[in-house]
Inverse folding.
């Protein structure tokens, strides 16, 4: 079961990165070119929010069934922090992904309250781009690219 969920989590991550990149790029381009906010822009930002939240749920399931999770009771937090692989999978990756999802959620929520196009695109471009950068900073690249 762990391997199946790990594969789903890894492949779904490609979708998250792609959609978040497209949503960020869309917001930046429309902000710079001063285009009006349209229903398509709303759907793109909403889709980025949805796929990232689904990824978070898959990640939570994976986190708690992972063989790494046993390290908390077997080794303790001190040993986890000394081991770079355990620290990445048990602390750094989950924490930065949660921060990324929070940024996406805050950006999406704030942009809905704005009435004109420029502030909407400005909020989306800032929050979604920050979320993308945070997300990319803690992907376990060696494991992710070896699927």
């Amino acid at each position: 079961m762990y391997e199946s969920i790990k594969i789903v989590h890894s492949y779904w991550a490609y979708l998250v990165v792609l959609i978040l990149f497209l949503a960020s790029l869309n917001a930046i381009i429309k902000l710079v070119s001063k285009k009006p906010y349209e229903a398509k822009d709303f759907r793109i930002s909403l889709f980025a929010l949805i796929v990232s939240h689904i990824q978070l749920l898959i990640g939570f399931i994976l986190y708690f069934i992972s063989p790494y999770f046993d390290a908390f009771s077997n080794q303790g937090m001190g040993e986890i922090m000394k081991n770079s692989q355990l620290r990445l999978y048990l602390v750094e990756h989950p924490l930065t992904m949660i921060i990324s999802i929070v940024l996406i959620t805050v950006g999406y929520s704030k942009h809905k309250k704005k009435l004109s196009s420029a502030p909407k695109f400005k909020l989306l471009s800032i929050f979604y781009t920050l979320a993308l950068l945070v997300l990319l900073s803690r992907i376990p690249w060696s494991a992710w690219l070896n699927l």
